[in-house]
Amino acid sequence: MSVGGDILQSWWAPGRVAGALLAGGPREARALAHLLFACGLAFLAQWPRLVRAAAADPLIPLEARLGGALVAMLFLMPLVLYGVAAASHLVLRALGRPPGFGGARTALFWALFATSPAIVAQGLLGGLLPAPAAGVAGGAVLALFLWIWGAGLAAAGAIALRPPTA
What we know:
Distance between the termini: 29 Å
Order of helices and strands: HHHHHHH
Structural class: mainly alpha
Low-confidence stretches: none
Mean pLDDT: 88
Number of domains: 1
Largest sheet: none
């Protein structure tokens, strides 16, 4: 299926999509591409909010705000997310359902990538609506992300626990 179709299907059957992504084993190049595209889209999604904040407080210019967001989303966030994926693997291994480091990375990075259209929509709302209403949209995006990530980790753990075929 196409990437767009996989994203839409992840919103109602995330375990099926994650299982298909992990069926041939985790592929680091694909997981890294999902991570970088998702971080790039999350950076772009912040622009409306940053423009609104720069207009409200001109002491910090828009260019400085965009530069900070660029460094945070494209350079620091991938490092943080690799750490989160490793921590999720270690926690699940302690609970007896190890997804493997590759499976944990694939599940986390796919969940972020599959949620990116909602992140972009939430970013647009953050630029148009007051903070409380944008916070509600952010909560909905977080719930969607956690649901897709949890289903991906469950699928990765189920694949990791299968006995090897001869």
